[in-house]
Amino acid sequence: MGTVEETVDGEDKPWAEVGPEAARRLLVAAVEAFAERGYHATTTRDIAGRAGMSPAALYIHYKTKEELLHRISRIGHEKALEILETAADAEGTAAERLAMAVRHFVRWHAGHHMTARVVQYELDALGPEHRTEIIELRRRSDAAVRRIINDGVEAGEFDVPYVPGTALAVLSLCIDVARWFNVEGRRTPDEVGAFYADLVLRMVSARKPEAEPRGAAQK
Amino acid sequence: MGTVEETVDGEDKPWAEVGPEAARRLLVAAVEAFAERGYHATTTRDIAGRAGMSPAALYIHYKTKEELLHRISRIGHEKALEILETAADAEGTAAERLAMAVRHFVRWHAGHHMTARVVQYELDALGPEHRTEIIELRRRSDAAVRRIINDGVEAGEFDVPYVPGTALAVLSLCIDVARWFNVEGRRTPDEVGAFYADLVLRMVSARKPEAEPRGAAQK
């Protein structure tokens, strides 16, 4: 999943997939401003200023502040969905696929915690049509995790009393990494991901796989 | 723990412990405004207006907007700490105490999700002294959960590879209920609390207690 870090919020060039360059810089500035001050306290003038551009230059790329939030939210949610569907479609046991989903999903939320917070906390600020679109992406993310857990239950690998609630709790646990990661985290995104994969396998009472998932159960 | 719901954000009279009445109404209005629009996008004029009061009347009770946030944050964190320390100090096995902590902590975060979001997401907006005070309350909350988990490990009840990381994950899982509860929840705060208590006992690989914790492991 190295590509995720390189294309969204990576160290070298965040949001490299967004072009042209001015549109990319504005998106980076918008994430920072929304994360620091909240969507409603941020003006398009603030965002243009952070990007070293004029408000008029911003309007060439984004007609409204909401369009910026929608762009950020859609890219963030599409990455999350890609991570979860890749794991759901992967080869291997349900435990291996669930561990993979959690490891990569946590890594993304830790490594891109500023984007993730905007994506998660500013959902209500989206316009009705954009919100519907994003809720559909979230429904599909949820479905990918449920699919893995259901497969594990059917194969007798997992013991889960209530699959939808467990899938929601797994995603919730991983998403909240974006809230605390910067403040209290003493570990790398990779280490948190591996530790969480182990915790989630416990939540579904997974039988110990023959080969332990890579990096799980760290001291 | 019924008193928690009655004294903070309860159905009948939220924040009943705060007085006089005008100060209480302003606090309720501030929680709503901060939760809806964010701290930075909210003015003291907005808050006074929501409470049906003049800005001048607000200043009698709160000198700054930050004072309102601090008051909300301190009461919220003190309630959280009370819930967790009560469970840590309770009689019973570590599994029973951990289940009690999770059940009540989740119930509070589900039942008071608006307050909880403000308390959790606007930490950076507190002034330095107030932040230090709140971080100390959080440290003590964390310590209460670690204490229960450590007791369980020492008694051979729990199998946990890394206690501090597990305590953080348990709190994080419960806190994030405040983010999704209103949007996706189909269950009562009590039901979510009972379901989560079971999930957390799985996270610590608790041995099945002789009598199952009340309400855990619902279908």
From TrEMBL, chains A, B:
A Pfam family hit: TetR_C_24
Q: Which UniProt keywords apply?
A: DNA-binding
Q: Highest taxon of the source?
A: Bacteria
InterPro entries tied to this protein: Homeodomain-like_sf, HTH-type_TetR-like_transc_reg, HTH_TetR, KstR2_TetR_C, Tet_transcr_reg_TetR-rel_C_sf
GO terms for MF: DNA-binding transcription factor activity; transcription cis-regulatory region binding
- Every copy of the HTH tetR-type domain together lies at 20-80
Q: Which residues bind DNA?
A: 43-62
The record's annotation in PANTHER family points to: HTH-TYPE TRANSCRIPTIONAL REGULATOR RUTR, HTH-TYPE TRANSCRIPTIONAL REPRESSOR BDCR
Q: What is this protein called?
A: TetR family transcriptional regulator
Organism encoding this protein: Streptomyces beijiangensis
Upper taxonomic lineage? Bacteria, Bacillati, Actinomycetota, Actinomycetes, Kitasatosporales
